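Action item from last week, closing it out:
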Amino acid sequence: MSQQFLNKYEKEKRVIELHLAGKTIRELASELRMSFTSISKIIKAYERKAKREESNQSTQPKKPPISTQAFKLFKDGKKLTDVAIDLQLPARKALKLWSQFLRLERMYECYEFYQLFQSHIPQLLAISTFIKMNKVNISNIPNILRTATDVNTLNETYYQLKMEVRSLEDKKINLSYYSPSPYSLQHLPLNKPNYRY
């Protein structure tokens, strides 16, 4: 297709294309059969428009990365599931961001503790309450726990002793029931009566 049949807009578009391809104004004038002035006006208008668009883009705030958005939501107290839904994250990605957030907040050990002991949290809270109520010094807890390992043995010994005491009490009752007391012998007559048949 010859350049003569290009309309004004097509010529402007072609000027920009060739300019961006690195052609000089002289080469453009020769190829498109246009004056230097017309070509210069088109190029200057294009560059002004490009600068305006660039400045508009730079003034608009860029959307922060997903990790930043997730960390902000976690910091605001959002649940893991809510963050995954809000940011349309797959579960694995959401969990990864959650663990990174915990590391940043120096709370990862707490999360690992929770994962290990989540079914025992009520009992651990009861221990914590006991410690507070009895004003137990935290530094004594390892000794208490060491002693607590013997609790099963102590319980077994306690129950064995309890059963022995009960057994002895039963024997005492049986003996007192079946054997006469020394006092009861005093009331028996010493002489046997004579019975005649």
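Closing note: The chain has a mean pLDDT of 79.
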